[in-house]
Amino acid sequence: MSSTIAVPVWLAVLVGILAAFALLSRFLLPSVRWIWGKRINRLTERVNRRLALKIPPIARTKRAVLIDRLVFDSKVLQEVNAYCEREGIPHAIAMKKVERYAREIVPAFNAYAYFRLGIKLAKRVASLLYRVRLGHANYKSLRAMGQNASVVFVMNHRSNMDYILIGYLASKRMALSYAVGEWAKVWPIQQIIRSLGAYFVRRNSGDTLYRRVLERYVQMAVEGGSVQAIFPEGGLTHDGLLRPPKIGLLDYMLRAYRLDTERDIVFVPVAINYDRVLEDRTLLLERTPQTERGSGLAAVRGTFAFIFSQLGLMIRGKWYRFGYACANFGVPISLRAYLQQHNWHPALLDPAARAQKVTELANDLMLAVGRIVPVLPVSVVCKLFAESPDKYFTEQEIREQTLALQDRYQSLGAHVYVPRGNADYAVQVGLRMLTLRHFVLEDNGRYRLNPDNAAVVRYYANAITHLTEAPIWATPSQTAA
Asked: N or C: which end of the chain has fewer CB within 10 A?
């Protein structure tokens, strides 16, 4: 019994590795998961006590359970059968595709990642870059929304900062679930985004099987009370104007909606504006089809060059934050009340008729967003120079005409944000921002538009153009309303 057995070193190492793996997988990892899960549950309970809209059970359900529920959904299975007949492929292969789509779409919400890491990081980033302001919010209407309502935030899309800004501003009242495009499906960004409750969407996918899986997930999330945040424009505005809305996600939400259901869907218009959009020049370049797109390496190089230039300004004491970033929250719109008022029911319409009605709803929601877009200092000053591109202005003329523009927007019911409550200071802030970026040139106390940057100035002026000129995609009846 006490004899010694000699074994090769490689075998001893292998046995040690296997033993360590068994110890880790059978004892240590389950214990860590149990402790971690208990901490997350305690945090969720604490957070839920202060949120106006509680974290719904669907967000606390294990991801594997949600994936199984989606894969074996009756409507998904019907689509699988039709897909197999149409394409002539075995059922098992189609189900593998469905499972892959479900794993791609379904998020893995983690309260700790969202509230302890994500929101804190969002606050630091937003506050570092901008003077963040919540301009207007109809708190009474927001509080009146019952727990039986599925809430959908409908927003304009000006920058990728929108995700960070609104997530931060809404964090004291709710946890948002975003629909995120394929740009974020890279490691480790996709894992982080999933843990924050977001789900991925393939834009313009022609795969009917994928679209049915996505449709059922969206319906499942809305029925489960998950607070959704969507950008009906489908992408960033390239010219600063409000884009015509796309109906994809809205149509998915409405297809399964019934007026006699217990849960209403409430749309909350949210409007965002910035004194400076980080991607402004890139977005303007994308408007020109002949513009050659740079390589990924060139984009990374440009990003780092921008960061180092800003650091250089900080070191020299010449760096300013990128002006104001402001969001307004409008009056919630009940889907049930809207359908009753306009006398139509999604379930009773054929696809073509429903698409037309959903488009009208999307336009109405987008116009509701447009009406509460914050009028910021840079937008107003840019409007002045964009309308008189060849004119020289004294500082006094700029002040007088900008204040007149502010009064005009206020008379139209727009939400004009006046920093510090000082209209003169607002003009100074806007003009300083434009001169620092060389959008406006000064010559002996007179200011004029820099022709080389005229397109960028129009981009910022266009952020508030819809307040005086109806978007071309809106019908006269909608603009009159």
From this structure: N
